[in-house]
Amino acid sequence: MDTLGRMKILLFGATGMVGSRIATELRDRGHEVTGLSRKGPDKGDVHDTAALAEGHDVIVSAIAPPRDGTEPEPPFLAAYRALIDGARASGVRRVVVVGGAGSLQVAPGQDLVDTPDFPEVYKKEALAGRSLLRLFREVEDLDWTFVSPAAQIAPGERTGVFRLGGDLLMTDSEGRSFITAEDFAVAIADEVDKNAHLRQRVCVAY
User: Fold this and answer.
1) What tens digit of pLDDT does each residue of 1-54 get?
2) Helix or strand holding residue 97 (H, E)
3) How far is the C-alpha of 112 from the C-alpha of 158, rounded, in Å?
4) 2 within a domain of the structure (yes/no)
5) Angle at the Cα of 108 (from 130 to 145), degrees rounded to 5?
6) Is 3 contained in some domain?
7) Domain that holds residue 116
8) What's the total number of domains in the chain?
9) From the centroid of its chain, how far is CA 59?
10) How far is Cα 197 from Cα 187, in angstroms, rounded to an integer?
């Protein structure tokens, strides 16, 4: 970090719906962002985190479970184990992770992914996300934050106005759980700037 508070941030998944907006938000705040993805001109493999993260202050990851028809959990968790090990090897302690909503609780002891109406098409992905949260909760030597969006996230307006919660699914007065990708990116950037929820899961919703 320089004297003006600008940080060098390594961002995985920088071309996705969420990752691209995180990159924009961080750059607009004056941070230097190394944005990497699995495809395109700025390719970078999360398994190479140890080398890629050298010289950076923070690692942000917006990679999602694979959607190629295979079982998503094993490669997804393997990728994040590589990220965790790479962060340790590079000396970067701060890691901010884009998580899913499936592991948010709708009632004590009941996660959203376990409810009868949870869409089957997203279930394997959500279960992989829950396993990822459990993986990070075992990590005690890195300053991680796991940020879950509302049940629905989509492109929209950047308002900068939203609520932060913990493990419970948040809904509005009409029972809807929603956040725009733009405001979710604001929450991620806020967490990078403020380090307000170290070794915690936080959720973002209107």
Assistant:
1) 775 689 999 999 999 999 999 999 999 999 999 999 988 778 999 999 999 999
2) strand 94-98
3) 26
4) no
5) 40
6) no
7) 8-205
8) 1
9) 10
10) 11
